[in-house]
Amino acid sequence: MNLGLSDDQEMLLHGVREFAQGEIAPRARAMDAEAQIPAEIIDQMRELGLFGAQVPEAYGGLGLDTVTYAAIIEELARACAGISILLSVHSSVAAHPLMLFGNEEQRRRFLPHMAAGEIGAFCLSEPESGSDAASLKTSARRDGDDYVLNGTKVFVSGGSLASFYLLMARTDPQARPLHRGISAFLVERETAGLILGRKEEKMGLRASDTMEIFLEDCRVPVANRIGEEGVGFKIAMKSLDSGRIGVGAQAVGIAQAALQEALAYAKVRQQFGHPLVHFQAIQSKLAEMSTRLEGSRLLVRHAAWLKDQGRPFTRQAAMAKLNASEVATWVTHQALQIHGGYGYMKEYAVERYYRDARVTEIYEGTSEMQRLVIARCLLRGE
Ligand code: COS
User: So what's the pLDDT on residue 1?
Assistant: First the structure.
């Protein structure tokens, strides 16, 4: 595995970094307070082609590899974690599964729109099924050339901005095991019966919206079913494998931002007649933060590289996400601690990083589920 990035990759990332630090970072605090992403930021992301980062050029995207894509997510997360998850969900668990499991007609119909920045969202979780995703209850009853969908989806990231929803529903209530009765659908925003519910009030990641979605006799054409009936759970799991690389990269970006803030603060903050960085207790914290952060970045890059090589990466993606999210929680905790009382104030960015990091241990599979995935892979000898 080549750990470095090529000149082309570095050049592209330089552009993304300039955009993220120049346009997004200065507004991140306001986005957190106002709980929304300004439309012009999303337009700029469209102009840069970011929504088509991993969509093949044949469908209007940039056709980037996963290593570059993960580095882009990291750069965006350094500036604003909410923006990074919008792109990660769109790319990894909406557009990517379409490339993997959609037929050619579906790819041609939807991918150019997604590459141009019509946003995709992912609808798996329900009020009573989170980690136990196979127990979902939303029903999809076949009726002629349509399916009629009924149910409720929760925690839909980017739900209010999305034009397309990759949604899992139960087509066969009798199927056992339960997961074999689930199918995947691409539901378009304007479909009658798709109703946006409440926008959640969240602890962190506030710029990104998290929505409840209701399906009330929502008619979806058979032509919008992705893959065969009964393979929806596998589509969801495969999508989440990729999604976990994105969330891992996001966690690395948040932790990187927190480390930089802590270092800068420790250089200027004076106590006992010296800047904080003169004290070994603080140096030790900074060293440990940096070491854990580098380790988590390498795990993310390794999982991304395996995916680019077309090799199995389920275990490595779960390890990357598990590690990066727990490191981000720890690093942001230490960064806040270095800031002392000021770190607890909204005026300092570490307060936001601390809140933003926490969800990376929860969404797209909790740390407990990542450990389960890793252990199962080990037991199978993978
Ligand atoms: N890729 C492809 N197929 C997969 C897969 C993967 N990564 N993981 C599981 N599968 C397949 C299995 O091979 C199995 O198929 P067969 O019955 O044909 O052998 C099927 O899916 C069921 O797998 P399993 O028995 O492992 O399913 P479980 O119900 O035990 O669930 C976990 C496994 C817990 C790992 C899964 O439900 C999960 O990831 N939960 C978290 C969901 C999540 O991340 N939600 C957040 C969404 S974002 S709001």
Answer: 79
Q: CATH number for 7-115: choose from 3.40.1350.10, 3.40.50.450, 1.10.10.10, 1.10.540.10.
A: 1.10.540.10
Rounded CA-CA distance 28/41 in Å is: 11
Query: Measured between alpha carbons, how far is 223 from 143 in angstroms, rounded to an integer?
Result: 13
- DSSP category for residue 155: E
- Tokens 């966690």: give the residue: 251
Separation of alpha carbons 113 and 43, rounded Å: 14
Q: Give whole-number Cα distances, 315 to 192, 301, 350, in Å.
A: 39, 13, 31
User: Which superfamily does CATH assign the domain made up of 234-379 to?
Assistant: Butyryl-CoA Dehydrogenase, subunit A, domain 3 (1.20.140.10)
Q: What is the pLDDT of residue 186?
A: 98
Helix (H) or strand (E) run with residue 150 in it? strand 146-157
Looking at residue 382, its pLDDT comes to 86
Ligand 1 centre distance from Cα of residue 234 (Å): 7
Q: How far is CA 148 from CA 50, 141, 181, in A?
A: 34, 5, 15
| The two three-digit tokens of residue 331, written as one number | 């690093």
Spell out, as residue ranges, where the chain has pLDDT lower than 70. Answer: none
pTM of the complete model: 0.98
Q: Is 364 among the catalytic positions?
A: yes
* Ligand 1 mutation pick, 135, 182, 237, 382, max ligand atoms within 8 A of CB: 237
Query: What per-residue confidence (pLDDT) applies to 2?
Result: 77
175 secondary structure, DSSP code: -
